[in-house]
Amino acid sequence: MWLLPAGSLAAIRIGQPWPLGASCTARGVNFSVVAPLATRVELLLFADGRASEPRRVIDLDGRHRSGDHWHVEVEGEGIGCCYGYRVFGPLQPGSHGFNPSKVLLDPCARAITGWEVYERGAAVGAVPNTASCLRGVVTERDHFDFEAAPRPRHRWQHSVIYELHVGGFTRGTGCPVPEERQGTLLGLIDTLPTLVELGVTAVELLPVMAFDPQDAPAGRFNHWGYSPVSWMAPHPGYLVSDDPLQARGEVRALVAACHRAGLEVILDVVYNHTSEGNQAGPTLSWRGLADTTYYQQNTRGDYLDVSGCGNTIAANRPLSRRLILESLRCWALELGIDGFRFDLGIALSRGDQLEPLDAPPLFEEMEADPDLADLKLISEPWDCGGLYRLADFPARRVAGWNGRFRDDLRRFWKGDEKCVWNLGQRLVGNPDLFGGLPAPVGRTITLLTAHDGFTLADLVSYDRKHNLANGENDRDGDNHNNSWNHGVEGPSSDPAVEALRNRQMRNLLASLLLAPGVPMLLMGDEVRRSQGGNNNTWCQNNPLGWMHWRPDEQDLALRRFLRRLITLRQGLADLLNPETPVADELLTRRPAEPGMVWREWHGVELHRPDWAAWSHCLAWSLVDPQLGPLLWCAMNAYHRAMHFDLPPSKLGWRRVIDTSLPPDEDLPRQPIAWTPAGVPLESRSLILMVGAPLVDRLQIP
Description:
Elements: E1 3-4, E2 12-13, E3 21-24, E4 28-34, E5 40-46, E6 56-60, E7 65-66, E8 69-75, E9 82-88, E10 111-113, E11 135-137, E12 161-164, H1 166-169, H2 185-189, H3 192-198, E13 202-205, H4 247-260, E14 264-269, H5 286-294, H6 318-334, E15 339-342, H7 361-368, E16 376-379, E17 398-401, H8 403-414, H9 420-427, E18 444-447, H10 456-459, H11 495-513, E19 518-522, H12 553-571, E20 582-583, E21 597-602, E22 617-624, E23 628-636, E24 642-645, E25 653-658, E26 672-674, E27 678-681, E28 685-691
Parallel strand pairs: 1-6, 12-13, 12-19, 13-14, 14-15, 15-16, 16-17, 17-18, 18-19, 20-21
Antiparallel strand pairs: 2-8, 3-4, 4-8, 5-6, 5-9, 7-8, 9-11, 10-11, 21-22, 22-23, 23-28, 24-27, 25-26, 25-28
């Protein structure tokens, strides 16, 4: 190791505070990092990712400081240069913060190396971690080629989102991905025909920003990736190449392939916390650079935590906001990503001391940024501190995961009481949550399942979670799943139990796709993927967390049903659009106007819906003043068959869906003409009738 004084004019220049991170110049590389309270900063240059000591240490003094930024231009360096920082300054009140024994990762590094030698434990305490630290790598900052692979830009009303885990979706027995590409971003390209055939319009990827797989209990590894060590660099575990300089190219290759296939790419991003945990956690990056800037703390210096992971990012502060916005632009402009889903996103609306803000500056800046104007933005409207803001989420362009939709549909089909009124509200766009009118299109993501919770198959097969494999004595995971095993806990050989479970899965999926909002599906639900009752597979990089690639006939039957259901939804998109005026004087309080389609509510008898606590049945219809009835749908969650009256139609009805029928008859390619005045509906079944004027627009595959 040798030291080069900062004043050596032959190789060192003052540099510029912008852009953040490491960027190539005509003479070399400009390095810029934020460290507001630091008294001294060292830039360490390494020969490679495995080097135990830096090949060069450059001491930055006051000449290399502009406000909160420390910067230097190093001549002769270029793409591929490996680097890190040591930062000196006072300890914070809680005895954490600056720790110059630790080599820090640049928060704006676009590529990372050192994973072969990285040790999470070495970043704790006062012992140097130089030999086992992560290092940034200088790389290009080119923009994505949108001319060659333009964004699909699907309208919200025609969007169907498919949530998947890159590593888990591209592994498993029977996986179509070549072995050398399994578990990778490039491997996902091999699966795109399957997704396109299903009919989804967007893939939502669980975190692909670099995360710490060692952030897990002893003997286990973090599989889901909600433990970020970087907001800029792709995760190395999802790459085919070992060369960090190839990482961004692999991301671009996947995004380009998705765009050409008509699929948007949405990233699940974790800006609410980092892998550094609480005060006792490792010092990897943010903490050692600007502890009190990036993290919410009380007056004693203790970390405030509404993420459940030990810390909470202070997204209300200017430097934190700029880093998050820089990350969004990096992935959207440089790598081509089409949208973002913010993990525990409402936490980003909190101010100092976690005070909820009605005008959070991060979202204001995000919505005002023209570079982000055409992106899809989605958020969880809750955090672990109890804040839950769905209809009043403090950002007009951000869609929220609708947990009320999920819970109310589950409870209705489970057979709970006091559910029918809530079900009606969900089927017309949640007017009870959005001030009496349906939620505007693009404001709610409707879902039944997600990575966090039971799969669809497990939802109808287990009464309780079975998470012992996670090593936490079944303490982890949600205890309130609104699930029902239908008489047998887990797998069953009873044909009656299996038939009822299959019917219930169709009921749930049909309810999801026939409701307003933007539907989201979970990886593998279309082929009855099970996690053995585990509702929190965050550390299960094994068949529990992998895709089901060897479907049997029943699995394939459900997939065909869902594929046809998605096509049906697209054909009815205008009628299911919450912004299409529909008169509904009962639930949405919208009076009829000349020429307006109106909604009628029914029970087993026409115009007599039963909203009582003990009711388990509901029917609704849409009527055009000139054409007559267009749609009629009935849902029977009762344990007995019921007979429903059918609204008279001069032009005739066609039966499109009947979940009580065998596979392929439950949603046939050709709708069945229906002439009786009534409809017998089996217990726990759903039926949809379509008026003859709409049949031509339904191209069922």
